[in-house]
């Protein structure tokens, strides 16, 4: 073989290696999602139900799915103030109010979860949109000023709706917007 043929063979081998690594990571992502007990097929979005037994803060809670598995859920597209300092986020005065409001909405109730493109965040929490009967919880929290918009691609399905909801809360001085012109959570 000549020099150029050797180079071409090596490039093909390298390309195949990266293709195999990519495909294996896709399979791992699907298996991770399935291990949470939510999916039986790979089609997204998919829904599931959980009974909420503990609210951590205004955007995170624990639920038990119908398989009996405990699942920590982080609501997609929103950021609520922290009730206590955790990780790099500091306690915020409105955090207790936001947590209490989410408590009153979902604690000890069965809610429906819908998923977007990414199913887990970097902390291993299940990312979801939550519904109680006909109430879209993520939207309700933003629209009433208990949380602010925080979209992280690729989970952006309701971004434009959440922008409208936040503008509504801001213009009507609801929740956080009653106290702050531009709420920031450290």
TrEMBL record:
Listed name of the protein = Thermonuclease family protein
Tagged with keyword Glycoprotein: no
Per the record, the domain of life is: Bacteria
Q: Where is the TNase-like domain?
A: 46-179
Query: Is Hydrolase tagged as a keyword?
Result: yes
Cite the entry's keywords alphabetically.
Endonuclease, Hydrolase, Nuclease
Q: PROSITE patterns, alphabetically?
A: PROKAR_LIPOPROTEIN (PS51257), TNASE_3 (PS50830)
Which Pfam family is one of those matched by this entry? SNase
The record's InterPro entries line, in alphabetical order, gives: SNase_OB-fold_sf, Staphylococal_nuclease_OB-fold
> What species does this protein belong to?
Sphingobacterium anhuiense
């Amino acid at each position: 073989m000549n020099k150029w043929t050797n180079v071409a063979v090596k490039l093909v081998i390298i390309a195949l290696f990266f293709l195999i690594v990519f495909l294996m990571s896709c399979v791992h992502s699907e298996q991770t999602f399935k291990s949470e007990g939510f999916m039986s097929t790979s089609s997204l979005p998919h829904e599931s139900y959980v009974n909420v037994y503990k609210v951590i803060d205004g955007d995170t809670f624990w639920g038990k799915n119908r398989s009996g598995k405990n699942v920590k859920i982080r609501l997609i597209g929103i950021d609520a103030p922290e009730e206590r300092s955790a990780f790099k986020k500091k306690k915020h005065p409105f955090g207790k109010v936001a947590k209490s409001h989410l408590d009153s909405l979902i604690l000890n109730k069965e809610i429906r979860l819908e998923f977007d493109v990414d199913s887990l965040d970097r902390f291993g929490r299940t990312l979801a949109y939550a519904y109680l009967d006909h109430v879209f919880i993520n939207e309700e929290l933003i629209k009433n000023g208990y949380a602010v918009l925080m979209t992280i691609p690729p989970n952006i399905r309701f971004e434009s709706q959440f922008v409208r909801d936040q503008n509504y809360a801001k213009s009507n001085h609801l929740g956080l917007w009653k106290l702050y012109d531009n709420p920031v959570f450290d």
